[in-house]
Amino acid sequence: MMVAIPTFFDLTGMIVITVFSPVLFRTVGFDSQKAILGSVILSLVNLFAVVVSTFVVDRAGRRFLFLAGGVAMMLCQVAVAWILADHLGGHHATTMARNYAKGVLVLMCLYTCSFGMSWGPLKWVVPSEIYPVEIRSAGQAMTVSIALSLSFAQTQVFITLLCAMKYAIFIFYAGWVLVMTVFMAALLPETKGVPLEAMRTVWAKHWYWRRFVGDAKQDSQVNCL
Known about the structure:
By secondary structure, the chain is mostly helical.
């Protein structure tokens, strides 16, 4: 989990899309000022979504936000890829009609909102909850190190990927979002309302992880002996 969560976080594509959003908006036909304005709008949408997430995360649960956010992000990325393929790739155009360009902006806002409600804040929340107390410091250090390293690597190659894959770059990230959503649905236990001291028991009761994690009570008895 300490490897999977930060890896999937970067493979949502949000980091590079945030950094290079002006380039993306220039690609769909916005001028320089409107491209920068679109980037500002995405940042404000992300901030709003994170604030909303802080109020609903303890009511809806972590797994629900991961799954709902993942499905929404995937649909938005596929829709953006379809629009770009149809109006840029299919017609070999350099810009698209204004209405479709605005549609891309709306879809990107929905994608950003979905990210801000799910993977954005939960990438920090869930790792701080799932690690047992005895390895919490090491786990958090690994999570942050992996996330920053992958973010650096992606920013170095994204422009090359965008030029090579064009609209298919969104299909690439949508495929990873599908993988991470299935992964979370199958392997992440719900941590809502679970104290740190009880996380070992949560892992021990999980259908998959219980084969690797012993019961905390049994471990206590062994330690006493």
